[in-house]
Request: fold
Amino acid sequence: MKTICFYFQIHQPFRLKRYRFFDIGADHYYYDDFINEQILQRIAANSFLPANQIIYDLIQSSEGKFRVAFSISGVALDQLEQHAPEVIESFRKLAKTGAVEFLSETYAHSLSSIVDEKEFKNQVTQHRKRIEVLFGQKPKTFRNTELIYSDDLGEMIYSMGYKTVIAEGAKAVLGWKSPNFVYHSALNPNLKLLLKNDKLSDDIAFRFSNYNWSEYPLVAEKFIDWIQKTPEKEQVINLFMNYETFGNLQPKESGIFEFLKALPKFAFEKGIGFSTPSEVSSLVKATGPISVPNPTSWTDEERDLSAWLGNDLQQEAFNKLYSVAERVRMSKDRRLHLDWNYLQTSDHFYYMSTKSFSDGGLYRYFSPYESPFEAFINYMNVLSDFMERVNAQFPSSVGNEELNSLLTTIQNQELKIADLEKELKKYKKESPTGNRQVAVKKGGAAKKGNKAK
Reply:
């Protein structure tokens, strides 16, 4: 029996306000609260809330047979809690159905996996804990930022306890193979890979309302027929896309919500089911290995990292940011850590891409800047102020090893002091100053008095 595996990404960055050179050292708040709130509330109203209600209704009407998965970045969760808490509640409602799986990813929707293993693991742990608190699930499946994946990254993910990874079904990786199977890592047969079916996913996410598309209009019955006609041995159809597809990227007027509502009906009629990623992984055996020596992603024709690190501007900003990673981790400043997360978000580097000059479209659509150069200058101004704050705590003239040594010494001293304070409190509790001696004297006097009598 064929099964459809739906996975939806939810992410929104904290967009930076216009930050001038003269603000460096004077203004330590970097975000455009008005724009961030405005955009998030619009997307919540047009996309998240109505789509969540439709999915909830489909789960109820199908008695749990309709099943989907979500990956919500930590920075998106932060904004939803601030500006649209009703969306969080609607996801909690979905979680209680038992038909929705929440995936694990980096908290900051960052590129840390390709440069800083320690930071990557910290963020994944931070995100996993947040999902457990909000939705009562411990994530079993991992998806990296923008579906970035490689063999080496797979080993790192497996070492953290994950046995299933969602990745891009890039042509350079698959070759003649179909994405409609479960594969395993070339380095580790215990790590299963679910690869995105590019064509069918993009038919919904990008081509659905394209009047010039030869298959327009796309209706649920036609789409399910395409899936049914795939070779019999191809049992898993992985449909991975941005959740904003429903109501935002594809507006309500396009008929996208009606398409979503009708999809399960035609699927069930054809004997096609729905499964979450962890269910697919546990029920379907891997057909063989997939080798991914170089990082892939789900962005652009190249399906590589060039959308974020393809030019000198992006690389300079990226390298400068992570040059202070170790010092930030040494700090106990909560605000510094919060800004550190938000500045790592991959969108900031995406806005600096000069690929928009050639293939346009999505880069201009998502970017709040007039040009990649404006995005670079604004980000670097913010980053300069951030680095000044880091250096104020840990001077750049002192090496990381020396700082670590000093901090270790300080921490050991703090622990020793804490232990001594505990011993002192214990001593005072057992033997308050002078009380024991007074008690002994009184007791002795009483005994003598008794004998006298």
Observations:
- Residues 3-290 form a domain with the 7-stranded beta/alpha barrel fold (CATH 3.20.110.20).
- The CA atoms of residues 166 and 194 lie 5 Å apart.
- The chain has 20 helices and twelve strands.
